[in-house]
Amino acid sequence: MIAARLSTDDRDADDRMARPTDPIDFKPIDVKEVQADVRAAYERGRADERASRRRHPIFMTLTFVAAICGVALIALAAANGSFSRGGTVADESLQAAVSKAEPQVRDATNQAGQSLRDAGQAAKAKAGGSPN
């Protein structure tokens, strides 16, 4: 224990530290009340910490997608013996997926464009046929 002496008389200081002059009034402690206070303080702390660490759901989704891609590339590298062979396999797989998906995407965009043109013509015909 570290203590500082305020008096030059060592005996007087020792006596004051050994015998407090004010009587101590002890009150019985309600354990349930103390537990409730501790629990409330804990919950406030958790809420404060959660508020300080808010995350945007889109950024978290992109982070998880990137992590999954990284794990997949590491698994390919482990299965093929090296990162260069794993990268080659990944490039070939992506190229095959792109070559299969490209015509379907092109057809879908053409159909969507044609649907928009048809809807525009139908709206013009309806507007032109109704009296204003």
Describe the structure.
The longest helix is centred in the last third of the chain and has 47 residues, at 83-129. The protein has 4 helices and no strands. It starts with 9 loop residues before the first helix and ends with a helix. The model has no long low-confidence stretch (mean pLDDT 80). Helices cover 77% and strands 0% of the residues. It is mainly α and 132 residues long. The protein has helices at residues 10-18, 31-52, 57-80, 83-129. Helix 3 (57-80) crosses helix 4 (83-129).
> Helix content range of the residues, please?
over 70%
Question: For the CA atoms, what is the radius of gyration?
Answer: 38 Å
The topology string of helices and strands comes to HHHH
Q: Please work out how many helical segments DSSP would assign.
A: 4
Assign the structural class, choosing from mainly alpha, mainly beta, alpha/beta, alpha+beta, or little secondary structure: mainly alpha
Shape: flat
- Main β sheet profile: none
- Ranges with pLDDT <50 over ≥5 residues? none
Overall pLDDT: 80
Distance between the termini: 96 Å
Strand residue percentage = under 5%
Number of DSSP-assigned strands: 0
